[in-house]
Amino acid sequence: MVRENLSENHSTVLNCREFRRFKASFMGENKTVKSVDYFAVLGVHQQACSQTVKQAYRRLARRYHPDVSKIHDAQRKFQEIAEAYEILSKYRDAYWRDFQTSQTPYPPKTHARRFYEGATEEPSTQERGPENASSFYSGAYRHQKPIDGKDRVITYPLTLRYAIRLLRLGSFYIPGLKVRMKFTREALMGKTFRLAGKGYSGLFGGKPGDFLVRFNIKQESLKWQLKGADLYGVFQVARPLLVAGKQIRLEAPSGSCIVEVPANYSPDDFIRIDNMGLPPDEQAQAGHLYARLIAA
């Protein structure tokens, strides 16, 4: 057991020394090191899970595979994608640890695997040399600018009957966000409602986007027409019922109501039913229903 522990410790020391020699020699030969953001290569966030990284790799690999892709630089792009996936799938812990501690640039391609295998310590400033020390620790992550998230836009189709019901409730529930937003008459006028910070997440500390909600309400049809807060409709009634003084039950988007056929009934005239249009809100009173009765 003691020999095994000594062997493991000896191997760790050798890996550390090789790691120091590689960094020092690499920085000596390359004054300017091109930083590689492997998360950006795959188009994923730094905190993305392994399954998300794998899915991103497969999606990009299918697109840029040299055997199927017609893009002129597909071969180079495919190699970059494969390299990024190899680093993030095999050496992600060392990659992430090195980023959190020193935020160093990561050498590309042939040096990438060797850079992460057995990396446990940082070489001292004397080993790197003062000329290369500052450039070595000014990696892309340190200077990565925050990227704000994009706005998410969604349009909900609603019937006029359901829109009136929502007006009475005063709110609309968004299942995806599990949020209940305020629903007003402005929704019937094409207004876009903005929920701040509920859009797509930002990257590198960027602010999230907004969630924009619109409602597509069919306000006009052959039977119904909305004018302001008033609702106009045409009702087909059996001819024997169109008698003066006869009460008829009408079904409108705002609900059912009873209307009495007037003595001077005409199929071209509208009968007004109070408070059967749009429901009242904080700024306006209830609208009315104007019904025109025609023989079926």
Structure summarized in a few sentences:
With 296 residues, this protein is α+β, with helices and mostly antiparallel strands. The protein has helices at 2-29, 38-42, 50-64, 74-90, 92-101, 112-116, 125-128, 130-136, 160-169; strands spanning 152-158, 171-174, 179-182, 193-195, 211-217, 224-227, 230-237, 247-252, 255-260, 271-273, 289-295. The chain is elongated and about 90 Å long.
Provide the helix percentage: 25-40%
Count of distinct structural domains: 3
CATH topology of the largest domain: Helix Hairpins
Judging by the overall fold, what is the CATH architecture of the largest domain?
A: Orthogonal Bundle
CATH class of the largest domain: Mainly Alpha
Please state the overall shape, judged from the principal axes of the Cα atoms: elongated
Q: How confident overall, as mean pLDDT? A: 76
Poorly predicted regions: 1-34, 104-111, 120-141
Rg is 34 Å
Let me know the number of strands: 11
> What would you give as the CATH superfamily of the largest domain?
DnaJ domain
The CA-CA distance between the termini, in Å, is 98 Å
List the secondary-structure elements in sequence, H or E.
HHHHHHHHEHEEEEEEEEEE
Could you give a short account of the major beta sheet? 4 strands, mixed
List the total number of helices. 9
Explain what the structure shows:
It is a single chain. Helix content is 34%, strand content 20%. The protein is of the alpha+beta class and 296 residues long. The chain has 3 domains: 2-136, Helix Hairpins (Orthogonal Bundle); 152-217, HSP40/DNAj peptide-binding domain; 224-295, HSP40/DNAj peptide-binding domain (Sandwich), CATH 2.60.260.20. The strands form 4 sheets. It has a 4-stranded mixed beta sheet, with no helix packed on it. It has a 3-stranded mixed beta sheet with strand order 1-5-4.
